[in-house]
Amino acid sequence: MTDTAMADLHTWILAVRPKTLPAAAGPVFVGTALAFSDQGLAILPALGSLCIAFLLQIGVNLANDFFDSITGIDTRDRLGPTRVTQSGLISPPAVKAAMWCVLALAMLLGLVLAMRGGWPVLIIGTACILAALGYSGGPYPLASHGLGDLFVFIFFGLVAVGGTYYIQTLQLTWRVLAMAIMVGLPITAIIVVNNLRDVHTDHKAGKYTLAVLIGEKGSKLEYTLLLLSAFVIPFICWRIGWASAWILLTWLGFPWCWVLIRLVWNSPISPALNSVLAKTAAFSLFYNTLLSVGIVLE
After folding, report:
1. CB–CB of 143/209 below 8 Å?
2. What is the C-alpha to C-alpha distance for residues 150 and 283, in angstroms, rounded to an integer?
3. Which of 121, 141, 239, 281 is the most exposed place for a label (fewest CB within 10 A)?
4. Cα–Cα distance between 106 and 125 in angstroms, integer?
5. Residue 243 Cα distances to 34, 175, 202, angstroms
6. Under a CB-based contact definition with an 8 Å cutoff, are residues 15 and 151 in contact?
7. Are residues 283 and 255 in contact, defined by beta-carbon separation less than 8 angstroms?
8. Is 208 helix (H, G, I), strand (E, B) or coil?
9. How far apart are CA 13 and CA 146, in angstroms?
10. pTM for this structure?
């Protein structure tokens, strides 16, 4: 491979943002563990769910890169990792085309799964595509109107876990939804750090994320409550009989959680929060892996 080709590949990897993929994998792990626990494990639908989750995450990343550039939200003052559209590394039409190709592939795989799951899968798939596009784009970008955190919680928690479980078992239960809430909490914390880092540049650009609306201290409090709640809910589920004591394996992640909370409160609004962001993403995968193991061992 030539140096030019290697450079192009590196640039596209930068656009895809592979470090965000653990957030997409965790919910599928938990949904599959729940299906296994309920004697409904189906390997091929589970793998299909994982592929779709990765494609949707990549599609969202490309959409954010494209829309935030053309709307002027991404500027040279950005504190986060390099965005390929704003920096001129890849042309806007190329990023837009890649976005549509990735989302089209996700739609195609979704149609295959719909042959098993029927109209509920079609509804879930359509909602996921619309959310991917509407997060940063469209006439009312969700992320620019304080709704990004809520939609991350819904789609990375309730929808991802519930959808993965449903496509394997063709049913849903309240227990599954409770587990989905646990999954969504640390994943939502990722976007909280992201928006906290960008709070000043987003405000200047007219992007009113929840962090802009509630301020730095409010965002740090939100982050704290999200992570701490991820340890309270497993305890409640155990006490009411929705899970065995194995679910308390998640508590092995509490020391890491406490370190992250201290980091968020002690870190200034600077590129230093990029490290906290990466660590929060890694923590979410660790937490969801512990949750999955606890469910399987029931």
Report:
1. yes
2. 20
3. 239
4. 9
5. 11, 8, 41
6. no
7. no
8. strand
9. 29
10. 0.91
